[in-house]
Amino acid sequence: MNRETIIQELDFKAVRSSGAGGQNVNKVSSKVVLSFNLPNSRSLTDEEKALAEIRLASKLTNENILILQCDEDRSQLRNKDIVIKRFLMMMDNALKEVKPRKPTRIPRSVIKKRIENKRRQSDIKQSRRRPDF
């Protein structure tokens, strides 16, 4: 994934932010909405697109468009930077190769210790019983 080319493919839209804020909210479009068209991306290979489509399935629309938004800051520029960072982190996580899990073996000493403890507990319980004549 080439970060520079993928950032050029992003579509941004400035929208009025919701919530409290008085006149600033009413007249300034500080909220940034990012949309990324996954199937039409030229910076991702077909394998990367398929992998991203699977891993980001819950965040994609029916047309496989990823939509992110940010209205954390009063500045539109800072919101744009935040949403770009969030997008790049999300794509990095989606395209990261997962290492296969190697099953570990229980060490022989641990098995031996467990069996010895069981034997000791058994002896203690045996000694509590009434003698059998």
From TrEMBL:
Region (Disordered): 100-133
Biased composition (Basic residues): 101-117
Basic and acidic residues composition-biased segments: 118-133
Ranges of residues in domain Prokaryotic-type class I peptide chain release factors: 16-32
Superkingdom of the source species: Bacteria
An annotated Gene Ontology molecular function: peptidyl-tRNA hydrolase activity
EC number(s) recorded for this UniProt protein: 3.1.1.29
Classification via InterPro entries: Pep_chain_release_fac_I, Pep_chain_release_fac_I_sf
Entry-linked Pfam families: RF-1
Keywords, in A-Z order: Hydrolase
NCBIfam families: PRK09256.1 (NF006718)
Family affiliation: Belongs to the prokaryotic/mitochondrial release factor family.
PANTHER family hit by this protein: PEPTIDYL-TRNA HYDROLASE ARFB
Protein name: Alternative ribosome rescue aminoacyl-tRNA hydrolase ArfB
Source species: Flavobacterium arundinis
